[in-house]
């Protein structure tokens, strides 16, 4: 069960550093070379496909739920947007952000 925590930490680090899913392939052999006597390393199985599933269907829904809960309890929020036209495919897209005040992040 400890290997699941290691896989989640690895997936979060990959997202944080904007690394590609393919760069996750063959990491198990590197971990095994670094930590030969550690049982957790033998159970880690995190290639590009599994990384995609963990992030998309495991971590993303969790963080979406957390953010929406904070927005709902926030006293003030705004939703700015940006529209752009992709000149190559001649299609537009719209980016939306949610800006909100979070009392838990205030220092003082």
Describe this entry's structure for a reader.
The model has no long low-confidence stretch (mean pLDDT about 80). The chain has helices at about 1-15, 25-35, 40-45, 50-75; strands at about 75-80, 80-85, 90-95, 100. The strands form 2 sheets. It has a two-stranded antiparallel sheet. A two-stranded antiparallel ribbon has the order 2-3. It has 4 helices and 4 strands; from the N terminus they run ααααββββ. The chain is about 50% helix and about 15% strand. It has about 110 residues and is α+β, with helices and mostly antiparallel strands.
Q: Concise description?
A:
The chain has 108 residues and is α+β, with helices and mostly antiparallel strands. It is built from four helices and four strands; from the N terminus they run ααααββββ. It has helices at residues 2-16, 27-34, 39-43, 48-73, and strands spanning 77-78, 81-86, 91-96, 99-100.
Please describe the topology of this protein.
Elements: H1 2-16, H2 27-34, H3 39-43, H4 48-73, E1 77-78, E2 81-86, E3 91-96, E4 99-100
Antiparallel strand pairs: 1-4, 2-3
Helix pairs in contact: 1-4
| Helix percentage | 40-55%
Order of helices and strands: HHHHEEEE
Largest sheet: 2 strands, antiparallel
Instruction: Let me know the number of strands.
Output: 4
Q: Catalogue the unreliable spans.
A: none
Question: How many discrete domains?
Answer: 1
> Quaternary state, please?
single chain
Average pLDDT, rounded to a whole number, is: 81
Walk across the major sheet and give the strand order.
1-4
**In percent, how much strand structure appears in the residues?**
5-15%
Rg from Cα: 19 Å
């Amino acid at each position: 069960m400890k290997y699941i925590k290691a896989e989640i930490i690895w997936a979060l680090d990959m997202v944080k550093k904007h690394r590609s899913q393919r760069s996750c392939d063959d990491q198990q052999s590197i971990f095994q070379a670094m930590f030969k006597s550690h049982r957790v390393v033998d159970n880690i199985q995190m290639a590009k496909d599994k990384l995609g599933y963990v992030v998309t269907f495991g971590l993303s829904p969790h963080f979406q739920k957390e953010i929406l809960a904070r927005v709902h309890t926030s006293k003030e929020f705004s939703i700015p947007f940006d529209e752009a036209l992709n000149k190559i495919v001649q299609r537009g897209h719209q980016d939306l952000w949610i800006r909100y005040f979070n009392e838990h992040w205030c220092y003082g």
